[in-house]
Write a structure and sequence with these properties.
Pfam family, one: HET
Number of strands: 11
Radius of gyration: 21 Å
Organism: Phomopsis amygdali
InterPro entries: HET
Protein name: Heterokaryon incompatibility domain-containing protein
Length: 287
C-alpha cells in the first residue's frame, strides 16, 4: 500500500472510504506496524474484493500533528465521503487494531420475516414476533438498547462524534459489527438476517404521516436537523475544539441537499431564529 496524491485536475477514480475509531490520544500519531493495522488490512482486502485500487483512510491521509492540514482536509470531508463509491465502517473496533471482520459462527442465520402495509396516510410494519421486531430494529440502526446481545455501547464507532458525518455523507456503507454484516444506501438497508433489504429512505419514519404541504415539509426539515444534532451531540470527541469542524461537512450537505440554501451560523440556521435559541431577551429595549 502506498500514498497517492491527487489534484483537482486529476482524472476521477473510484475509491472506498474507511470509517473507524482512531483510538485514545496516547496512540497518536498512529504507527502502521504489522501488529496493529488489522483494520487497515481488512479494509484493503474488501477494496480488492470490490475490484478497486484506492482507499481513503483519514488517519493516514491527514497529517496528524499539523493543525493546518487537519483544518484544510476537514473542509473537504463532504466531498471525500459523498463521492466515495462506498464507506467501510468498523463498528466494533476501538482502534485500528480491531479490524473489519464478523466473528464466524456455525449457527444457521435466522432470516427475519415482515410485511409493510401502505395505508395511504400511514404505513405499518408487521413482524413475526417481538423478538423479530427487536432484531429488525437493531439490524436497521446498528444496535438498539433493548436488544441485549450487542447494544450500542458495544459498537464504539457509533459513539464517536467524528464518525457521525462519515456515515451521513456516504451514499453507500458497509458496517462490520461483531456478529453481523450490515449495509445501506440512500434507498435501502439490509443485513445478514435481512439479505433482501428493507426499502425505505435513511431518514424516513415508517409511522409518521406523509408530508403534504410546504409548511409541513419545513417543519420536517427542522425536525430532521434537530434530530441529527441530538445524535451528534450525544457522541464523544477526543478534542472539544473539533465540535463544529467535525459537523461542518454534514451542515454543508444539509444546506445544499435538504434546505436548498440558508445561512448557517455555528450549528444554527438563521431561518430558525429565534426558536432555535436557548435564551430570549425579556425587554424590547435594545441594550
Amino acid at each position: 500500500m502506498e500514498l497517492v496524491e491527487f489534484s483537482c485536475e486529476s482524472e476521477p477514480v473510484s475509491y472506498v472510504a474507511l470509517s473507524l475509531c482512531w483510538g485514545p490520544p496516547s496512540k497518536h500519531p498512529i504507527q502502521t506496524l504489522p501488529e496493529n493495522i488489522a483494520g487497515y488490512r481488512d479494509a484493503v482486502e474488501v477494496v480488492r474484493d470490490l475490484g478497486l485500487s484506492y482507499i481513503w483512510i483519514d488517519s493516514l491521509c491527514i497529517i496528524q500533528d499539523n493543525n493546518d492540514d487537519w483544518e484544510r482536509e476537514a473542509a473537504l470531508m463532504t466531498q471525500v465521503y459523498r463521492e466515495a463509491l462506498c464507506t467501510i465502517c468498523a463498528l466494533s473496533s476501538n482502534d485500528g487494531d480491531g479490524g473489519c471482520r464478523v466473528n464466524g459462527s456455525n449457527e444457521e442465520v435466522k432470516l427475519l420475516r415482515y410485511v409493510d402495509l401502505d395505508l395511504g396516510e400511514y404505513r405499518i410494519r408487521l413482524v413475526e414476533d417481538q423478538a423479530s421486531m427487536d432484531m429488525l430494529n437493531w439490524d436497521l440502526e446498528y444496535g438498539d438498547d433493548d436488544f441485549k446481545i450487542e447494544p450500542w455501547g458495544n459498537n464504539p464507532l457509533r459513539t464517536r462524534g467524528r464518525a457521525f458525518q462519515e456515515r451521513e455523507l456516504s451514499v453507500r456503507a458497509v458496517h462490520f459489527s461483531k456478529h453481523t454484516l450490515l449495509w445501506e444506501c440512500l434507498e435501502m438497508k439490509g443485513s445478514t438476517e435481512i439479505p433482501y433489504g428493507v426499502t425505505r429512505g435513511r431518514d424516513e419514519s415508517l409511522m409518521e404521516p406523509k408530508q403534504t404541504s410546504s409548511s409541513d415539509a419545513g417543519a420536517a426539515d427542522r425536525d430532521q436537523w434537530y434530530g441529527k444534532v441530538e445524535d451528534y451531540t450525544s457522541r464523544f470527541l477526543t478534542y472539544e475544539s473539533d465540535k463544529l469542524v467535525a459537523f461542518a461537512g454534514y451542515a454543508q450537505h444539509f444546506r445544499r441537499e435538504v434546505l436548498g440554501g440558508g445561512i448557517y451560523l455555528a450549528g444554527l440556521w438563521k431561518e430558525h431564529f429565534p426558536g432555535c435559541l436557548l435564551w430570549k431577551h425579556l425587554s424590547h429595549d435594545v441594550q
